[in-house]
């Protein structure tokens, strides 16, 4: 499991360049992934939504802009990242540990987390904490990276472990953070295992939507 202090320090060091680096290294495809997630959230029509591990606010800002009727709160434990999110226009932000949210039980209609769950020290415990905050019948959406299957797997792994750290290191000055990225993607549960984890942590109706051949996956579930 990821080391929390390393994750905090790594993201703090790249906060100012994080958004541009993500778009560059994904060739802009991350924008399309979040757009698909936004469509799913729109179908749920929640009154309020918690975006956990909001980082520099990409997901929360998309929802705030496109679905203004939803009250959005972005939560992250990394203050430099939250500062960037607020500078970009995020209206409601809270610095907090996703493993121990300072929020009441059954207080949110929906929770999203994009590329963040993978960085938490215990996935199952995090999912249980998210479930505590969700109202019965509420919705969870997890967008995260994965390893594709088939003939794409080998070239993707070569890019992930050899090319991406070099490019990211040049762009951000923090190659170690992006070496960690590849390792964290490798250890994150694949679709079947994650679906089972959702069931075991109190969720119903889990689904997995593969994107770009499995490079990213959108998971949804009900509380």
Specify the helix fraction band.
40-55%
CATH H-level name... which superfamily?
Vaccinia Virus protein VP39
CATH domain class name: Alpha Beta
Number of helices: 9
Order of neighbouring strands in the sheet with most strands: 3-2-1-4-5-7-6
Low-pLDDT residue intervals, each spanning 5 or more residues: 10-16
Kindly report the average pLDDT value.
87
Shape: globular
Give the termini distance in whole angstroms: 25 Å
What's the Cα radius of gyration?
16 Å
| CATH architecture name | 3-Layer(aba) Sandwich
And the CATH topology? Rossmann fold
Main structural class = alpha/beta
Structure overview:
- The chain is an alpha/beta fold and 223 residues long.
- It has one domain: 3-Layer(aba) Sandwich (Rossmann fold), CATH 3.40.50.
- The chain has 9 helices and 7 strands; from the N terminus they run H-H-H-E-H-E-H-E-E-H-E-H-H-H-E-E.
- A 7-stranded mixed β-sheet has the order 3-2-1-4-5-7-6, sandwiched between helices.
- Helix 3 packs across helix 4.
- The chain is globular and about 45 Å long.
- The two termini are 25 Å apart.
- About 3% of the residues have low confidence.
Core attributes:
223 residues; single chain; alpha/beta; 48% helix; 22% strand; Rossmann fold; 7-stranded mixed sheet; globular
List the helices and strands and how they pair.
Blueprint: H1 4-14, H2 18-25, H3 29-44, E1 48-52, H4 58-66, E2 71-76, H5 79-87, E3 93-95, E4 108-114, H6 123-133, E5 134-145, H7 153-172, H8 175-187, H9 191-200, E6 204-211, E7 216-222
Parallel strand pairs: 1-2, 1-4, 2-3, 4-5
Antiparallel strand pairs: 5-7, 6-7
């Amino acid at each position: 499991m990821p080391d929390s202090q390393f994750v905090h320090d790594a993201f703090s060091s790249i906060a100012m360049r994080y958004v541009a680096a993500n778009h560059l290294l994904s060739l802009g495809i991350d924008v399309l992934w979040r757009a698909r997630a936004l469509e799913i959230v729109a179908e749920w029509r929640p009154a309020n939504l918690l975006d956990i591990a909001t980082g520099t606010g990409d997901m929360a800002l998309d929802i705030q802009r496109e679905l203004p009727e939803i009250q959005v709160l972005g939560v992250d434990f990394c203050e430099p990242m939250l500062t960037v999110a607020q500078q970009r226009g995020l209206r409601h932000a809270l610095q907090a540990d996703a493993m121990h949210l300072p929020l009441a039980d059954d207080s949110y209609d929906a929770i999203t987390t994009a590329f963040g769950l993978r960085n938490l020290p215990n996935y199952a415990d995090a999912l249980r904490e998210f479930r505590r905050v969700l109202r019965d019948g509420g919705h969870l959406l997890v967008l995260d990276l994965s390893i594709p299957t088939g003939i794409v797997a080998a070239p993707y792994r070569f890019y992930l472990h050899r090319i991406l750290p070099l490019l990211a290191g040049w762009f951000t000055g923090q190659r170690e953070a992006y070496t960690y990225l590849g390792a964290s993607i490798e250890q994150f549960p694949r679709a079947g295992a994650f679906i089972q984890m959702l069931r075991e942590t109190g969720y119903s109706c889990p689904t997995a939507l593969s994107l770009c051949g499995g490079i990213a996956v959108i998971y949804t579930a009900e509380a």
